[in-house]
Design goal:
Length: 300
């Protein structure tokens, strides 16, 4: 039996990070330790648990069965300890030197980050703000490693243990330039499918999206002729052509160069959520960051 009274808690923190990174070098970077120091910690942990814990594999290091059993209980215990230690702490943005790292696609940059940016930077002359392009496939890992503090993403049940808060509900509208030569305020399905459409494909090169899934159920196929990587490019493209696009309503409703055409079907919608990792949930600084977003963003 392990004697908890004589156990160095720093070793358990190292083990928690190693079980996330599966790599001594990356763990050392996260812990702000040298690689030899982490190797020494791992050797002590192996002796403490009488188990290799992590063994070499073709993709870094692979946890043993015991290590896998320890992973979640250890993380829960460390989070509880952190919550206890931070319980009476107060974050003062005027005094603290923080660099906030936020990941988002262009929709959230415009609708959420732009309004909240002034508060985040303005409340402290020491604060910095880094906006990173969101890569959905890497999102969980980036939050787990602390590479980003919060992210804004479409609500997705596959995001596992991440904490979330719904910020708003959005729906798509059919949009074209105001001087489009052949559009009326209202069209039918045949007219809709006959138009030349442009779409956003975040992963690049895709020619179908949520609207196409919906249309397929109606037995309709639209004519998508342009695929672009972001909404900014898409909006600019339809302003300079006779293309149309299904766009989030908040991006186009007040644009004097665009018109919204009534659809012959109920358009798709989505919920935008703020995401963060459970390990940051009780951190006073992180709580302050989330509060700034919630107090500034338009919440529905």
């Amino acid at each position: 039996m392990i004697n908890f009274a004589t156990t160095d808690l720093n070793l358990l923190k190292t083990l928690d990070v190693l079980l996330t990174e599966h790599n001594v070098t990356r763990a050392a970077q996260r812990l702000h330790l040298s690689q030899p120091s982490v190797s020494v910690h791992l050797a002590k942990l192996r002796e403490l648990f009488n188990d290799p814990l992590l063994i070499p594999s073709s993709r870094g290091m692979k946890p043993t069965l015991l290590a896998e059993e320890l992973r979640q209980p250890l993380r829960n215990a460390l989070q509880s300890l952190e919550m206890t230690l931070n319980n009476n702490q107060v974050f003062n943005p005027v005094l603290e030197n923080k660099t906030w790292k936020i990941a988002a696609a262009d929709y959230a940059e415009f609708i959420v980050i732009k309004p909240v940016m002034k508060n985040l930077i303005g409340q402290s002359s020491h604060s910095k703000l880094a906006i990173k392009h969101m890569i959905p496939d890497k999102l969980v890992r980036q939050l787990e490693r602390g590479e980003i503090d919060i992210a804004f993403h479409v609500r997705d049940d596959s995001l596992g243990e991440l904490k979330s808060r719904i910020l708003l509900t959005e729906h798509y509208v059919l949009t074209a330039r105001k001087t489009h030569p052949s559009l009326r305020p209202k069209i039918d399905l045949k007219q809709f499918s006959g138009l030349k459409h442009a779409i956003v494909s975040p992963n690049g090169g895709g020619f179908s999206g949520e609207t196409d899934t919906l249309l397929k159920a109606l037995g309709i196929e639209r004519n998508v002729v342009l695929s672009v990587p972001n909404f900014y490019f898409l909006i600019d493209s339809i302003k300079q052509s006779d293309l149309v696009a299904m766009l989030p309503s908040r991006l186009v409703t007040n644009d004097p160069e665009l018109q919204i055409i009534e659809l012959p079907f109920t358009p798709p919608s989505f919920e935008l959520v703020m995401l963060w990792h459970p390990r940051s949930h009780s951190d006073p600084a992180h709580q302050w960051l989330r509060d700034q977003v919630l107090n500034t963003a338009l919440i529905h």
